[in-house]
From TrEMBL:
Organism classification: Bacteria, Pseudomonadati, Pseudomonadota, Betaproteobacteria, Burkholderiales
Pathway assignment: Cofactor biosynthesis; ubiquinone biosynthesis
Organism whose genome encodes this protein: Rubrivivax benzoatilyticus
Name of the protein: Ubiquinone biosynthesis O-methyltransferase
Catalysed transformations (reactions): a 3-demethylubiquinol + S-adenosyl-L-methionine = a ubiquinol + S-adenosyl-L-homocysteine + H(+); a 3-(all-trans-polyprenyl)benzene-1,2-diol + S-adenosyl-L-methionine = a 2-methoxy-6-(all-trans-polyprenyl)phenol + S-adenosyl-L-homocysteine + H(+)
One Pfam family cited in the UniProt record for this chain: Methyltransf_23
Ubl conjugation among keywords: no
HAMAP family named in the record: UbiG
Main EC class the enzyme belongs to: transferase
EC number(s) on file: 2.1.1.222, 2.1.1.64
Alphabetical GO biological process terms: methylation
Length: 234
């Protein structure tokens, strides 16, 4: 089976792996938005006691925080270095209800279909060759009635201006080349892939940023960054 991953994208994040948990590093935006998305996921799905899969977990920032909400979390990624950082941090933080695996989403879906109450796939779809395949695998991994969450970037001139020109070149919040505009995903495209995978839309939020106050918040504006909640029919 061909692995649905881009070697260049994996290398890009692997090179930065050792900085994943440094809140002043290139991953600062991730640390700042994490409480917002964690609270939103928890408010809808109720993480306590749930079995949770974090797809494309990277260094484990969201995985570890969901485990902190008393969920039983499995984080998966294809970056060996990022997973090494994630495992080390969990060990140092003495987080017990958390495990990491280096496995593709599609491979895990074949191995453990219908296993998770909650599946999260955040800031990953715009980095893989076939996002629809990941969405389909996430749907297969969820239990009937389970929640599946995605976040990605909209594809329009405003998103190009804010997420690439602004974030990578002007404000230098992210390394240049972090994102490729043609890989951004319109909400209508994401909704279609979710429907094709048998998932029912259950809500969406936009993520906004004010460069003057350096503050993030969730809103109804999905024109740049956005999060989507879906459910697998029970």
């Amino acid at each position: 089976m061909t692995v649905n991953a881009d070697a260049q994208e994996l290398a890009k994040f692997s090179d930065l792996a050792h900085r994943w948990w440094d809140p002043e590093s290139e991953f600062r935006p991730l640390h700042e938005i994490n409480p917002l998305r964690l609270d939103w996921i928890d408010s809808l799905a109720g993480l306590r006691g749930k079995t949770v899969l974090d797809v494309g977990c990277g260094g484990g920032v969201l995985s570890e925080s969901m485990a902190g909400r008393a969920a039983h979390v499995t984080g998966i990624d294809l970056s060996t270095k990022a997973l090494g950082v994630a495992r080390l941090h969990a060990l140092e933080s003495e987080v017990m209800n958390l495990e990491y695996r280096e496995i593709a989403t599609e491979a895990l879906a074949a191995e453990r279909p219908g296993s998770f109450d909650v599946v999260t796939c955040m800031e990953m779809l715009e980095h893989v060759p076939d996002p629809a395949s990941v969405i389909e695998a996430c749907a297969r991994l969820a239990k009937p009635g389970g929640w599946v969450f995605f976040s990605t970037l909209n594809r329009n001139p405003k998103a190009f201006l804010f997420a690439i020109v602004g974030a990578e070149y002007v404000l230098k919040m992210l390394p240049r080349g972090t994102h490729e505009y043609e890989r951004f995903i319109r909400p209508s495209e994401l909704a279609r892939w979710c429907r094709d995978a048998g998932l029912t839309p259950a809500g969406s939020r936009g993520l906004q940023y004010n460069p003057l106050t350096k503050r993030y918040w969730l809103s109804d504006d999905t024109s740049v960054n956005y999060l989507v909640a879906t459910r697998k029919p029970g």
